[in-house]
Amino acid sequence: STSQKHRNFVAEPMGEKLVSELAGVGEVLGKRLESQGFDRAYVVLGQYLVLKKNKEMFQDWMKDTCQA
Fold it and tell me: Which domains are seen in the chain, by residue range?
């Protein structure tokens, strides 16, 4: 089942939502991502697309980028 945070996020267009609004990204990971230049949810989506929507590569990128 999906989290309330996920349901809230997908209930409306992404627009300018902060990276910390992504499900699974709390305050600590959000600040780590922001410090690397990934301040908005759409920027993280862009990185996922750059990685050709490869889940494993994206997870590795998250681990490397914000010590997730």
Answer: 4-66 (1.10.150.40)
Q: How long is the chain?
A: 68
- Predicted TM-score (pTM) of the model is 0.89
Rounded to 5 degrees, φ, ψ at 18 are -70, 155
Using an 8 Å Cβ cutoff, are 19 and 25 in contact?
yes
DSSP state letters, 3-40: -HHHHHHHTS--TT-BGGGSTT--HHHHHHHHHTT--B
In tens digits, the chain (68 residues) has pLDDT values of: 789 999 999 999 999 999 999 999 999 999 999 999 999 999 999 999 999 999 999 999 999 999 87
